Amino acid sequence: MKPFKRIFELSLKQQLILAVILLFEITGTVSLYFILKKKEDAALTSEFIANSKELTASIEKEVSLNLESLNSINAFYCVNESVSREQFKNFNSTVFDRINSIQALEWIPAVKFEDKSIYESMAHKDGLTDFLITERIDGKMVAAKNRDLYYPVFYLEPLIGNESALGFDLGSNQTRLSALQKAAESNKLVSTARITLVQEKSHQKGILVFGPVKKREEVLGFVLGVYRVGDLVTRAIGNESNKVCNLVIFDISAEEGNQLLVQRIEENIPALADDAVLNYPKGLYFEQTLNIADRKWLILTTPTSSYLDSFSNTADLSLIISIILSLGFLYYFYRNFREFNQNTKNQLVLETTVDERTEELQEYAHIVSHDLKSPLRTIDALVNWLKEDNKDKFDKNSLANFQLIESTLEKMELLISDILSYSSINTDANELQDVDLNVVIKNLKSILFIPKNISVNILSKLPKIKGDPVKLQQLFQNLISNAIKFSDKEKGMIEIDVLDQGSNYQFSVKDNGIGIDEKFHDKIFKIFLSLDNNKDSTGIGLAIVKKIVTQFQGKVWVESEVGKGSTFYFTLKKHSDGIS
């Protein structure tokens, strides 16, 4: 909760920025997730459906191949007046060579009651001494009851493993009898619903497929294919469980509760009950209906959990990575905002402290200036009294000494004034004004003492500058005064010019005075540095110039040669907030 509370310590603007960033991150992350998820689901669905179609096609092909074998046996009976047991065996051996998923192929003659014993005798002659037309009662095989017509299993291949089915009367079971009658009426292959085969020893569901054999319109019997549905599926798709699909087959032509034919599902999924009803699952599945003889089978597949787990999880992974990156990005901005606020706070404290100290120093400078000037004035007054009271008593040397004292006192007072001016540059804040520099120079000409042999000229019209008029005047005053002090020519010249450099103005103050040695070009702008013993020079004037120009975001330099004069250059920005 603590980091959450700290968010409210940010400014409203910063909170809004974080909210917008968070909104974009959420939108981008969710969009990316759904785009990748959609692609993954599409790829998963496509692969699953392709695999399901392949399985379904394999099963359909296998069933069709088995049913074709019945049609071939039917055609064999149609072209032969009679078929012996040996002929039936030999013909079907070729079928079994091609198809090994058939449980049994049978010949089911239509036997009238009066011919029952004849068929039994024929079987005995073929070596089946125990042959008897039977039916199942209470799970046991017994002699068939008397009825008008029997449909016994007379020929059977392969016999081994199917012995219990030999002689069984299919007409004794209503499901089988209904299929026989339907096949006779339709003259097409007819399949039973799922049944338990007579010879079944496991728990597979079986089906019987009948094909009628007729002569003119008389039904001579039926060729019969016996199939285990599970074996058909295994033959089609293999014995190993499919790693992609769970498979369930329903006979949707049958009554509810009797539809489930086979299921090939993962071990971790509960098996369907024997009387399970077709129920479509939620989520991804595939279905296809097959026509098996006269019935409809529905093949239903669903993806296995192992297939879903093994499929690429790029979308989930990208979601996790995006969330981590988004939180990191958000935290980066949050931390920067906090650091910025802290730095701003520290800066305000520092500026407040500096302002307080500067104000104290300024006050101190004024006090010191006053306290230093008072004794100087007292000394100056005492010297004057001594001179006046004893003007006839002092010799020339004494008067010269008094003159030296007065000159020194004057220089000290000037030094104190310059120091006060220098220290006040950054603290005295006047209202910014549009200052016409042409007027400033004009005023300086009337204020400054300019000897008659020195001319001050403006070469180009000077611009208007927004700034503190006092400091701008102080800037030009110091440069012009400096040029006057160090003029040694019979005809002195001071020229002021300006050059527009786009974002700033470059000013120049040129004189033809004594000049400055190149080694002092940088040093002269340092405080208290004076290159001669001129009584009017304190070594602070050019330091003040540099401080004012720097405050105006400009720079100052000099080009000079000894004996040929000096040119002081300085720049002032046009669109600055001005000197204040």
Largest sheet: 5 strands, antiparallel
CATH class of the largest domain: Alpha Beta
Low-confidence stretches: none
User: CATH homologous superfamily name of the largest domain?
Assistant: CHASE domain
Give the overall silhouette.
Answer: rod-shaped
Instruction: Just name the CATH architecture of the largest domain.
Output: 2-Layer Sandwich
* CATH third-tier fold name of the largest domain: Beta-Lactamase
Q: Gap between N and C termini, in Å?
A: 47 Å
Strand order of the largest sheet: 6-1-9-8-7
Number of domains: 3
Strand content: 15-25%
Query: How much helical structure, as a percent, in the residues?
Result: 40-55%
**With helices defined by DSSP (H or I, 4 residues minimum), what is the helix count?**
12
What's the mean pLDDT score? 83
Radius of gyration equals 60 Å
Q: Structural class, from helix and strand content?
A: alpha+beta
Number of strands: 20
In words, what does this structure look like?
There is one protein chain. This protein is α+β, with helices and mostly antiparallel strands and 580 residues long. The mean pLDDT is 83. The strands form 6 sheets. The chain has a 5-stranded antiparallel beta sheet, with helices on both faces. The chain has helices spanning 2-7, 12-78, 85-98, 116-125, 174-186, 229-237, 305-310, 314-389, 396-424, 437-447, 469-485, 541-551, and strands at 104-109, 111-112, 134-137, 140-143, 149-150, 155-157, 190-191, 206-215, 218-228, 245-251, 260-264, 286-292, 295-303, 433-436, 454-458, 464-467, 492-500, 504-511, 556-561, 565-573. It folds into 3 domains: 1-307, CHASE domain (Beta-Lactamase), CATH 3.30.450; 344-424, Helix Hairpins (Orthogonal Bundle); 430-580, Histidine kinase-like ATPase, C-terminal domain (Heat Shock Protein 90), CATH 3.30.565. Helix 8 packs antiparallel against helix 9 (396-424). The chain contains 12 helices and 20 strands. The protein starts with a helix and ends in a 7-residue tail after the last strand.
